[in-house]
Amino acid sequence: MKRIHFFVSGDVHGVCYRYYAVNKARKLGLKGFVRNVPDGRVEVLVEGEDNKVDEFMSFCKKDPGYSRVEKQEVKEEKEIKSSGFDGFEIRH
Fold first, then answer.
1. Does residue 64 contact residue 37 with C-beta atoms inside 8 Å?
2. CATH of domain 2-80
3. pLDDT, tens digit (0-9, with 9 covering 90-100), for 2-61
4. Catalytic residue at 36?
5. In the chain, where are the structural domains located?
6. Active-site annotation holds for 18
7. Between vectors from CA 8 to CA 34 and to CA 79, what angle results, nearest 5°?
8. Burial environment of residue 64 by CB neighbours within 10 A (0 to 12, 13 to 18, 19 or more)
9. Catalytic residue among 26, 36, 51, 68
């Protein structure tokens, strides 16, 4: 089990980045959330099986939808406590 918290910057607001990310995460059976943050980045918290989280991270770096990813700041969380997530959602 792996949990990754990351921020994506570039052209990621108003280009369906969150929509594509949530669809991919749900297809992979991951839990967590994605949301826009006021400084122009997108915040993502994802957890699940190691290989599926890795596949999701790779997807998120490759400009999903109409986005253009310039940078991804990643923090892997060492201790995974029960998150309480039921699935993967877009937060506002």
1. no
2. 3.30.70.100
3. 999 999 999 999 999 999 999 999 999 999 999 999 999 999 999 999 999 999 999 999
4. yes
5. 2-80
6. yes
7. 65
8. buried
9. 36
